[in-house]
Amino acid sequence: MNDQTASDVAAAAGDSDAAVAGGPPQPFVFSGRGGEYFRIWIVNLALSILTLGIYSAWAKVRTRRYFYGNTLLDGAGFDYTAEPLKILKGRAIAALVIGAYIALGQLYPVASLPLVLAYWLLFPWLLMKSLAFNAHYSQHRGLRFGFVQRTGDAIRVYALLPILITLTLGLYYPFWKRRVAEYYVSNHRYGGTLFSFHATGGQYLRLYLLALLIALICLAAAAGALFTLLWLVDALLPQIEADGSDIPLQQQLLQLGGFGIVALFYLFLLPVFAWLRARGDNLRWNNTRLAGHRFESDQSARRLMLIYLLNIFAIVFTLGLAIPWARVRLARYRVEHLRFVPHGPVDELLAGSDGQASATADAFDDLGGFDAGL
Amino acid sequence: MIELAGQYSDGRSAARHDARLRLGEEGRVELHAGDERRVFVLAQLQISERLGNTPRRIQLPGGSQFESGDNDALDRWLATQGRRGGEHWVHRLERRWRWAVAALLLCVALIGGGIRWGIPAAAEHVALSLPAEVNASIGAGTLRVLDETFVGPSELPPARRRALREAFAVLAADYPQENLRLHFRAGERLGANAFALPDGSIVVTDELVALAERHMADRDRADRDRAERDPAEADREVLAVLAHEIGHVIRRHGLRGVLQNAGVATLLAALLGDIASVAALGATLPTALVHAGYSREFEREADAFALALLDRHGLRREHFASILRKLGETAGDDHSFFATHPRTAERLESIDGH
To answer: Fewest 10 Å CB contacts: which of A16, A164, A264, B118?
Structure first.
């Protein structure tokens, strides 16, 4: 009893923020609204088309700012502060690299092998630059995020380790996915504090083995449905042909059959997609730490799949007009199933060496930060 | 005097403090955070543009910042300071439904126009300026696939083949730079049909030749008793179809089709963006509709090409009309939006119209 009283007194005497910060998990909240985002989306889409795509860099920043700004933790929003002109610059660099790759391949067919190798190494570098760009221009509670640029790590994870997947006939894939998640999480930092990643290869192996099991069940179901469909068409067609008059119907049936096969393929892969997305996100967040602070994510694959289904049908039947509502619905589900579990006062997280915004923005660009759009 | 409630952070730690920002005359701004009180002028502040109702960030000198969700109060004050900084012009468009509807109509018009005229015009320009070899490479191996899956060896008598080849050679002689070749096949599942491959191979089925020999079902019923139809007469109908197929080759419909469909796919990917992976299924349907529309346009163009070619060689248009009518009767018209060919009635009308 005495101990408890002592801790109560300590908490009451201390900074009120610190007491809250050490407390229960804090939910992330999403406050975006479909109607509001629809207007932003359609106006920016029209401007992008009118300017033949140039405005799309501004549109991208506004879209990101909308989703970041409406993601709240403890009442504080996130913000995306990149300048559209710098995004245009990144796209120009990416276009130049890809253009040079195609042109060189056409002009010097002999050089295509070295070119493929160069591109093989260039891709991880471009990806790393994009991650660094987007992290640098993201902020929360006045502190920037950041991404530590280690070119060697990027090349190891994205260019060298994938070779192992082929050598092991895919067995290495789950472990590679763990390495990719580790690279992504543990090189990000908030202010001056690095995130850390603690998932094991075994956890990823389990995730992907279950995904494989779901895929097999789904494919079996899809094959069954497909054979039933073919059997029906086969059983119906001779009658129609004997009729002689209704051949357009036969054509229609064949066309519908074609769509049916494509539709089946997507519908039956949806559970696998939703599983990997929901459980993959959970696995990554639940094993991410920031100093002592943790995260909790509890997305359900079944619920996520229902959201995907609802979104697909809404988008198809509104000829795309429902895209903004679909995006908001998906973002809300994913954000609101994430919680921050503080361990001690959050206030003690400090800015990194580049905390002062004015001087560093330029220094960052001198270091060659850009978003290649990957 | 306008007062904004919000949070202050110093930019050195994640700490956040409740604070107030007093917005006064002549751009004077007073920050009250705890015991601290600092004074700025508007010119020293960087205020983020308004976007929906997301909180605004006011960047203060020295890396600290003030965040507030009271967008309306901030915009009211900015307006009194003679700055429309709060009311960014894009936000003014985004704020109102009437501008959103206008943007929607503009998008529909631009995307529709692009699909209807822009992409086909660009594809035609590119396809017609590329060398013939590029065009030929599109359909390489197609004939082999057709032989393996859809068609069989022709059973047409050699004399008929020779006659058709000779007539075809006369038309093909107009295009010496093209490698036009005629192939005979049994249509089997494809029935009475003819098709052109981009490399200049034109395939005609036995069933089509047989159809040309047949009399019209209704009109010629009285002539049923008459002897076999003159083969030369029938060959002219086949030749009219071949002229249509030559049109597909010369007008580069194979390559243009590939380019147009790639254009539509790129456009859809750009419009749908990251949602594409989920909505790919939804995208297949409009894509199929657009493809069918392009295909009907190519058929119309090939029809017009065939008529001009027939006219030049003094061949009568009635032969083309006759075979189209018979094809329409045997195959029936597909009236759906997925139809790859225009309706027979429409095609016959444009033949008479000339």
So the answer is: A16
